[in-house]
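ugh ok fine here u go
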Amino acid sequence: MQTPVTESKDRKLGEILVACRLISENDLAKALKVQTQRGGQLGSVLLELGYLKVEELQELLGMQLGLPTANLYTLEIEPTVINLLPFEKMKQHKAIPIAVSNKNIFLAMVCPNDFNAIKEIEFCIGKSVQPVVMPSIQINAALRFIEEKGGRLGQPLKGVDIEAYATRRHTVSEHTELKQLFRMLVDQKASDLLLSAGVPPCLKKDNEVVRISTTFLTPQDTVRYSYELMSDTQREEFERMKELDFAHTYPDIGRFRINIYKQRGSVSLAVRHINETIPTTEELGLPAWVEEFALKTQGLILITGPTGHGKTTTLAALLDVINRNRHCNIITIEDPIEFLHKHKSSNVNQREVGLDTDSFHEGLRHIFRQAPDVIVIGEMRDPESFAIAIQAAETGHLVLSTMHSNTSTSAVERIIDVFPPQQQQQIRVQLAESFIMILNQRLVPRKKKAGVVLACEKLIGSVRSRNLIREAKTHQIRSMLQQSSEDYESIDIALARLYREHKITLETGLKFCENVVHFKQCAGAGK
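structure:
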């Protein structure tokens, strides 16, 4: 496999800079990593990182390409010169006219050896082009400046203004962007804020990623953001574990759940806004009968579904139902704590992994000594957690938890499969006896992009469903109980109901359903 020409040229440029002792080997390695993650010209990356001066880069590029050079920050270009080339062409070829003579136009270009671009521009303006070497960081800053002015200038383009503009953008980004991004996450009612090196900041709205800026984040940006959010203790843990979950609060914006992790040698952040107000089951779109199951005194309730589909919010709503209507002692183990529950009719003791207990496993080992009536496990992740949860549900406690699974029946099989083969039949029997309800939910886009609506599959602990689980026939639940019944209703039926109620489109239902034929039959949409 051949090395791409641009990569080869950039590496050669870097080697020359190292040979001239303008940068170190370590500087080159870091710059090449940044370039790999976000693209762009190596010289401009070196300038942004502060490893090189504009004059040094200009001199070397001029010698390497055998072309004249120019420093935009020292120039003043008349509008009649800039406007010779339509802005669309400037943007397309990353080229800016900087001077003109009777026959020639001097054109600063990111790629001054792009002969096809030169020919196209010569045809467009009717003059010969003399390419000029200029760092792409300067050309890109000028293009952004011109675009903000509407693509056509009425005043001279002053290099000092471009330099101030570029510096101001960088400074604003460095000092205020993080808090502004958190505020944007809340204001736009998005579910997540995603910050990764090599791409602009992104919001996740209605389960779709939307880029909210044209400025690419550098590895230095994401490291700075993460260190701004973490305490010294959390930084040490992150450096040791390479990932970290915690909660962070801006008093004037809100509370956030943050996951920081490493990828391809850089740092990325995933931020979720935690709504301080616990929604009711009605507000979430959950059926009324769900509250009846939440108020039972013994058994296991599982909220399942893919990541980002509201499992934690549903769990908080059910816990609030218990808190308002029962006089009991509630113990939660969460990583991190998202919704803060006040003591109402019940006592609510919330324990956060890493702060109040070392792990889910350690917290659950001692939980029976804390006199719980209701146990809430933020997420079941390992065999020990599953075993203790089932044991607690069998011995007179109500246990609520979440887990990742695509269907309610696959959740049953996943619990059983985490145990060794010799234990699986025993766990199958225990689970069949103890589970009350398994919900599997999806947040589905409403019609006309008006937010999302909840679609919910249910599996209730009836005699029929318990027998099928006990006899290792869980897979038959979906076929034997396919039509809506008191103890089972598939996600296809729930989606079909939303379609008939005109809350979602047929295309959305087809996208989220499990069985296309069954969904269409239930929706009355034909073949």
